[in-house]
Every structure is written in C-alpha cells, then in structure tokens.
UniProtKB/TrEMBL annotation, chains A, B:
<dbReference type="GO" id="GO:0003723">
    <property type="term" value="F:RNA binding"/>
</dbReference>
<dbReference type="InterPro" id="IPR029026">
    <property type="entry name" value="tRNA_m1G_MTases_N"/>
</dbReference>
<dbReference type="InterPro" id="IPR013123">
    <property type="entry name" value="SpoU_subst-bd"/>
</dbReference>
<protein>
    <submittedName>
        <fullName>TrmH family RNA methyltransferase</fullName>
    </submittedName>
</protein>
<dbReference type="Pfam" id="PF22435">
    <property type="entry name" value="MRM3-like_sub_bind"/>
</dbReference>
<dbReference type="Pfam" id="PF00588">
    <property type="entry name" value="SpoU_methylase"/>
</dbReference>
<dbReference type="InterPro" id="IPR029064">
    <property type="entry name" value="Ribosomal_eL30-like_sf"/>
</dbReference>
<dbReference type="GO" id="GO:0032259">
    <property type="term" value="P:methylation"/>
</dbReference>
<keyword id="KW-0808">Transferase</keyword>
<dbReference type="GO" id="GO:0006396">
    <property type="term" value="P:RNA processing"/>
</dbReference>
<dbReference type="InterPro" id="IPR001537">
    <property type="entry name" value="SpoU_MeTrfase"/>
</dbReference>
<dbReference type="GO" id="GO:0008173">
    <property type="term" value="F:RNA methyltransferase activity"/>
</dbReference>
<dbReference type="InterPro" id="IPR029028">
    <property type="entry name" value="Alpha/beta_knot_MTases"/>
</dbReference>
<dbReference type="InterPro" id="IPR053888">
    <property type="entry name" value="MRM3-like_sub_bind"/>
</dbReference>
<dbReference type="GO" id="GO:0005737">
    <property type="term" value="C:cytoplasm"/>
</dbReference>
<dbReference type="InterPro" id="IPR051259">
    <property type="entry name" value="rRNA_Methyltransferase"/>
</dbReference>
<comment type="similarity">
    <text>Belongs to the class IV-like SAM-binding methyltransferase superfamily. RNA methyltransferase TrmH family.</text>
</comment>
Length: 277, 277
C-alpha cells in the first residue's frame, strides 16, 4: 500500500528550507529558537495524534508507509490545515536519527508550564531533576513517571532538555503526556516554601530508608546527577533525604533505575492506601 | 605525574598484533574466539584489580596517567607477570570506544559457569533473560543485581552478550562480580525441574500483582525482551507470572527499570524478614 496525499508536492532536495529546519531540530539551539522538536516513526506520530499534541508539520514518505492508520492520521492533519511535506526516502533518511523512520515524522511544539502556575492538586507526584547527563535516562524517567501516574518533571538547570531526540525516543510516547517545568533552584526553593509539597531527596549517605517514609500526595522526588548525586545545597531544601539500600561493592544505581524504585514506592503506598479504604 | 613502567617498550603502531587483537575485541566474534573482553578507564581497571578479575594484559599510556593508584596497579600486574603494553595516546585512543580512556585499559578473561553446576545456595536471586536488545539495559540490570545482592544472570539465547563494551560500561564494575551462565531454554527447563528455585516471570497481561507474591530464596526473576515481553512458552515454565501495575497510557516499562522494580521487591521482602527475626 502506498499512502495517497492530497494537494502535496514531492520534495527531493536536502536544501529545501523546511527540510533544513527540521534537520537542525537535532540541535538544542534550534529547538530553543523555534520551540519545536521532531518525532519520527508511526508509533510516535500516532501517539502525538492520540494525545492531541500540537503538531506543526507532518513529513511523509508515501512509498515507505504501509499502514492504513498512517493514512488516517495524515488525512486528519490535512483536514485541520497542518502542512504535510511529501518527501523522497533519501530526504526522510537525511533528517532521521533512527535506522527506520517508517515513512513518517512530525514537527511538534514543545509545551512548557510556568512553575508559578503549578499548585498542589490531585497529582500523585513530580520528579525534580538537577542535571541529567544521559538523555536516555531522562526519557526513561518520563516513561516511568507516566506509568505510575506522575505529573511530569521539574528541571532545575538549563542543560537538561526533555526534547532531545534520544530522550523523546526513550519516553516511548510519554513526552506528549507528561508536564514540563524549567526553573532555577532559587525560584524552586521559594515556590516550595509557599506550597504544601513534600520534597524528598535521595542520597547514598542518607540514614533514612526510602521505605520508612510516608509519601504524601503530592510528593516531589528530587534526584541528583548521575555519579555525583544531590549536592548539599539541594539536600538542604528537602523535607527528608532518603537512601535506597545497596549491598556489596555497589555505591550507586543507574539514575533511571533509582528514580523508578522511588516512584514505585510512592505508587505502591498510594495503591495500598486506596485498597485499605 | 607520569607513571614509570619497568621493562616495557613503547608501541606506536596501530598494526602491532596485540593492538589489532584488542581493537577486534569490540566484535562479538573475536570475544567468543578469545574468551576475552576489554575494559578501559581507571575506575574499571581498579575494579578488575580489586575484584581479582583474571586480567590477561594491561594497556597503559604513561603520559595520560596521573593517579598514583594506577601506578600501584601496574606494578602489581608486572610483578605477577601480566604483560603491560605501553602505548602512545594515539594508539590508546584508537582502541578505545570512549572519549577519555584515562590512560589505561585491560584485557580480561570472560568467566562463564555451567548451569549444571549451579545448585540452590544462600544466594538471594538470579535474573534470567531471554533476549536483551540494548547492551546498556543489560549492563544496568547487572548493576542493580549487584546492588541488591543478586548472584548474576542466566542468559537463554546466543545473541545477548554481557561482555559487549556498552554493557560492561553500564555495569559500573558489577561485570567483575556478577556470575554468568548461558544455556538453552530446554536445558533451563530441565534444570529448573530438578532444583528448588522459584521462577517468577513478568507480563503486563498477568493478573497477579508483583507485590502479592512471596519471593523465596533463591528466586529467579525471568524477564522478556524489550517491547515483546515474555513469550507464552517461557511463561509456561514459571511458578508464577506477575505484573507490575501501570496506569494511564503506559503499556510497558523500560526493561532495566522493570527488572530494578522486581529486584528491589525481592530485596525488600528479604530485608523485612531479616528485621522481623
């Protein structure tokens, strides 16, 4: 099957301005400037569609598409006036960061919220992160946060970008449904003082076992950088700093695993509370 | 500081037979043929040294070494007759898969055990894995297994290789201390029938909550492939198949996170049992 696309002309040049712009979305600077990011593959485009993510442009290689659902998605976006670029396989591969872009990609608008507008609601928890070196770890954290009903991430530095292509891929679609806030440590500190959030940090040198804490709703789990962990200045902001026990020669867990263990503890406590009512 | 190495001559050619052999250890075929693998950086070489891993050869670039501990390690291996190759920065970078090899690497012998010699002891648990697509996931699983006191992994297919360089790096040193077994599903099935191991599989479609199972010692946690999960044929071998609950749009967790959540449940149950005695 080859998808049919109405009112479109085939782009076969790497120098087409839209193609050049999309390729440059791999760079953080271009993502910042445009407020956009690029997702690829039918799974991700379908996820964007189902999650009503703000899609600005669709990129399609009709001869590589062989799923009727793709055609439905394309026709939907055409109907609502989203530009659909039809490209050759060479062009699609040229803008793609994966081996098999499956004939479809989308330019999506980033969604950021302001911390000042976030107030405690019925959300289970947030994850606050200082620096995350690995984009894959960040994406995996978002995937786990969605799985346990977490709201999203509060990023406390400029370098960490959830819209990095490697992060987006690792989210497996959670990128469209998790919430994102970027702020400074100082603003975070002041905001935390005004609101009734429980802030829990983690550190291998803490003396409180992570299972000995009662996690209120909403909790914020604050995780430090890979290897370095949470600096003292951030530990000082926390209501409690807990440790995840380890034995043997281990001195740390992978950041995405440690966050997963914390998030499942928060989730499990909530589940037990619900069944005991 | 520049490390001093006795009785050594500087290698400056990429075509030196030892250098060519080490470079080829990136390939699975060469690792199989030689039964060796290559680790790099002071952290890993120091870990190999402390764990008494079977080091066959050391590769050293004296001008890039600036830690007295490195010199102690080098002198130890020289004393016990392990060859120490002294190389130029260009040669070390040429065999390295990381940005900063820190002036030192080691060729280490792989350690595999035979399943038939494994009998239930006082180990807390094993992880059995069918196919693991991501070497980073496999390494992260080994890192978590060490952290909770797990014995190691039982690999049920030929493709999955814990000695892949990306896996080794992700273990953060657990590669030297975890135990490794490779076997077939049929041999695993027969071995499991003879011994008193509890085999627990995971599947999103299982009806038993992973927290509602009492994990005996020793338990084997059986994890399926990324995305695909455990096939029916493997679920059929399990004493129980459990699910890790998820909410929202999530249909799966990252494999290393899911394994981490399972391993911490096994570990937490053991910890509670110990404190209640």
């Amino acid at each position: 099957m080859t998808a049919t696309i109405k009112h479109s002309h085939l782009i076969g040049s790497h120098n087409h301005p839209d193609i050049k712009r999309i390729r440059r979305l791999r760079d953080r600077a271009m993502r910042e400037q445009t407020g956009q990011y690029y997702v690829e593959g039918l799974r991700f485009v379908a996820n964007a569609f189902q999650s009503q993510a703000p899609v600005d442009m669709l990129v399609v290689c009709p001869q590589q598409l062989d799923h009727p659902y793709a055609e439905r998605i394309i026709h939907h976006y055409q109907r609502v006036g989203v530009p659909v670029l039809e490209v050759t396989p060479e062009i699609l591969n040229g803008i793609s960061a994966v081996d098999d872009p499956q004939g479809i990609g989308a330019v999506v608008r980033q969604r950021w919220e302001s911390l000042t507008r976030v107030t405690p609601g019925d959300e289970l928890c947030w994850v606050a992160l200082q620096i995350v070196r690995s984009a894959g770890n960040l994406g995996t954290i978002l995937r786990t946060s969605e799985a346990i009903g977490g709201a999203g991430v509060i990023v406390l530095d400029e370098a960490t970008d959830p819209y990095d292509p490697a992060c987006v891929r690792a989210t497996m679609g959670a990128i469209f449904r998790q919430r994102f806030i970027r702020t400074s440590i100082e603003k975070f500190r002041r905001w935390k003082q005004r609101h009734n959030y429980q802030l829990i940090g983690t550190s291998p040198s803490a003396t409180t076992d992570y299972q000995d804490v009662h996690y209120h709703t909403p909790t914020i789990i604050l995780m430090g950088e890979e290897r370095k962990g949470l600096p003292q200045s951030l530990q000082a902001l926390c209501d409690t700093v807990v440790q995840i026990p380890m034995v043997g020669e281990s001195d740390s867990l992978n950041l995405a695993v440690a966050t997963g263990v914390m998030l499942y503890e928060v989730f499990n406590q909530r589940r037990k509370k619900e069944t005991s009512h």
